[in-house]
RNA sequence: GGCGCUAUGGUGCAACGGUUAGCACGCGGCCCUUUCAAGGCCGAAAUACGGGUUCGAUUCCCGUUAGCGCUACCA
């Protein structure tokens, strides 16, 4: 919690559409959302698309989808910075007018994109002990260069320091001489006098305009913060509270990137992770409720979230732990919440039947919603990812399924198997009642009569009716499949194998 | 190179001057067992290093080392 809670809390998540929704960004969004919810505040979504060159508008949809999947909802927006250009230009002229900014005529191409870019100065070496040049020679006024359109730079105070208190990192200070005269507004192109706003100006102007009270963002912005604090003051505004959250690293402790595996949130959705599991995992990376609790559902997360629980150390994205969370949720999620996810997966695999929907009439084989629910419940302890319901569990939803070679090799190698399965089929076909115990007793009787261990029959039978060595307990499986299917599959196995 | 931030098992977090340094993932073993999971029990595994401060440091301070971040007319 924070000390100054006068007025309602207003936070924002401000992604840039230069890529997909990265897990780091997703976590930042999550923290903002959780904070907004637990403070009964407002969550705002803002798209920071001021760089026309890198910006890919079509990426916004994916970002929004990713947020929605994670359950991160916003109350206002999305606002697009590309549509707020006037606001930034007004702010820039205000800064120009009050002496906080100046026009810079240094040629843009000279510095653009280069590692060695130094404002206003020529080839200053980057390393080598030479003092870095942070002051632009245009800052004290310079005659306009014909043919060169100026950019607007901030006139950073000479000497002194800019300090601020970060909610998670504490007191932080930077010597002003370390801060360069950063660009506020790009120089104009074509007949435009000025171009788009730069990041620093845009965030500050918007955060003021949107009355943001808490800026929760990645720690990579820690070093940018003094620039922004300076801007707030120059604009005559009070800075918000800053809360920087640690970065997410790959297994090698390097910044998380593609080579560490998936970093796109939508890829996890595609792979079949449950959003609640993914979120639970993500929120615990860099945040702790203060004790050893780990399994936290949405309501608990909202209730227990606090900025004080945010860690200061970068964390490694652990795929194994994510997988564990997913299996936990697959098992513990209330069945009604799991069913829609399974339905979606089956539809995608063309295995879904409308009679399994809630309230629908049973199909010709007697299967209805209750059967579907029971079956999913039976299957879920062994499922690792959602698509497993359509692949690994295929034999439960379709009569068209393969018999795995590895399963035959493992459980059909005993020469007595065909004979056993034939007797099993007859015994099961003769059962007047079809339930777990009936199947159990009948099967064990068959094994006993044949003088083999029940396990031999059970395992062989499993392969015959679901095609795999791995499945739920056999007699439960038989009940889920139904008498007719089980007998049919057994006899078909004897015919074709 | 400069500036900033960080430092508890392999990984994520607890312990916020006094604990046999706790939990979880992963790893190894055992139990359960009808395959595979799940579950239960047990085990290996950590305070980066060096100085202080203190009766007492994982905890506070300084240095070293390491990692990360920023150092763009990117965000």
Structural class label: alpha/beta
Poorly predicted parts = 1-5, 110-130
Give the % helix. Answer: 40-55%
Report the span from N to C terminus: 67 Å
Quaternary status of these chains? single chain
Estimated radius of gyration? 31 Å
Would you report the number of β strands?
A: 13
Largest sheet: 4 strands, antiparallel
Helix segment tally = 19
What characteristic shape results from the CA principal axes? elongated
Strand order of the largest sheet: 4-5-8-9
Overall pLDDT:
91
Task: Work out the strand percent.
Answer: 5-15%
Keywords:
single chain, 497 residues, alpha/beta, four-stranded antiparallel β-sheet, three-stranded parallel β-sheet, 13 strands, 41% helix, elongated, disordered N terminus, RNA-binding
Write the layout of secondary structure elements.
Blueprint: E1 10-13, H1 23-38, E2 42-47, H2 59-70, E3 76-80, H3 85-97, E4 101-104, H4 108-111, E5 151-154, E6 161-166, E7 170-175, E8 183-187, E9 194-197, H5 199-209, E10 214-218, H6 225-234, E11 241-245, E12 248-249, H7 265-271, H8 275-283, H9 298-304, E13 315-316, H10 319-332, H11 335-348, H12 369-379, H13 394-397, H14 405-411, H15 417-429, H16 436-450, H17 454-466, H18 474-481, H19 483-496
Helix pairs in contact: 1-9, 3-5, 5-6, 8-10, 11-12, 15-16, 15-17, 15-19, 16-17, 16-18
This protein binds one RNA strand of 75 nucleotides through helix 4, strand 5, strand 7, strand 8 and helix 5.
């Amino acid at each position: 919690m924070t000390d100054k809670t006068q007025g309602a809390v207003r936070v924002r998540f401000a992604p840039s559409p230069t890529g997909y929704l990265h897990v780091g960004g997703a976590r930042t969004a999550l923290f903002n959302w959780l904070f907004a919810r637990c403070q009964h505040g407002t969550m705002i979504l803002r798209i920071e698309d001021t760089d026309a060159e890198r910006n890919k508008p079509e990426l916004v949809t994916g970002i929004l989808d990713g947020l929605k999947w994670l359950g991160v909802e916003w109350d206002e927006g999305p606002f697009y910075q590309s549509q707020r250009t006037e606001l930034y230009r007004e702010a820039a002229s205000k800064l120009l007018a009050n002496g906080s900014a100046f026009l810079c005529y240094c040629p843009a191409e000279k510095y653009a994109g280069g590692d060695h870019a130094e404002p206003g100065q020529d080839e200053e070496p980057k390393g080598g002990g030479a003092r870095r040049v942070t002051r632009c020679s245009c800052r004290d006024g310079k005659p306009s260069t014909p043919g060169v359109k100026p950019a607007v730079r901030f006139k950073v105070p000479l000497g002194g320091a800019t300090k601020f208190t970060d909610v998670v990192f504490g007191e932080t200070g930077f010597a002003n001489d370390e801060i360069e005269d950063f660009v506020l507004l790009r120089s104009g192109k074509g007949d435009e006098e000025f171009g788009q706003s730069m990041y620093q100006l845009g965030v500050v102007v918007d955060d003021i305009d949107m009355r943001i009270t808490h800026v929760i963002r990645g720690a990579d912005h820690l070093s940018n913060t003094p620039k922004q604090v300076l801007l707030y003051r120059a604009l005559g505004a009070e800075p918000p509270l800053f809360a920087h959250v640690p970065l997410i690293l790959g297994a090698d402790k390097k910044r998380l990137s593609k080579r560490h595996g998936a970093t796109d949130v939508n890829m996890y959705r595609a792979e079949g992770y449950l959003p609640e599991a993914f979120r639970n995992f993500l929120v615990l990376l860099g945040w702790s409720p203060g004790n050893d609790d780990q399994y936290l559902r949405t309501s608990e997360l909202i209730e227990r979230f606090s900025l004080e629980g945010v860690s200061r150390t970068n964390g490694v994205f652990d795929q194994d732990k994510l997988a564990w969370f997913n299996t936990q949720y697959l098992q513990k999620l209330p069945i009604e919440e799991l069913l829609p996810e399974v339905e979606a997966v089956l539809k995608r695999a063309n295995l879904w039947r409308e009679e399994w929907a809630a309230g629908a009439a049973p199909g010709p084989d007697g299967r209805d919603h209750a059967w579907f629910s029971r079956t999913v419940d039976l299957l879920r302890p062994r499922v690792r990812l959602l698509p497993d319901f359509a692949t690994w569990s295929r034999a439960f939803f379709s009569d068209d399924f393969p018999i795995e070679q590895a399963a035959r090799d493992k459980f059909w190698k005993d020469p007595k198997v065909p004979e056993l399965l034939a007797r099993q089929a007859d015994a099961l076909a003769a059962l007047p009642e079809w339930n777990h115990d009936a199947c159990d007793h009948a099967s064990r009787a068959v094994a006993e009569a044949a003088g083999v261990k029940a396990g031999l029959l059970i395992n062989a039978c499993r392969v015959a009716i679901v095609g795999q060595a791995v499945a739920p307990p056999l007699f439960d499986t038989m009940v889920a499949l139904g008498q007719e299917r089980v007998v049919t599959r057994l006899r078909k196995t004897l015919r074709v194998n």
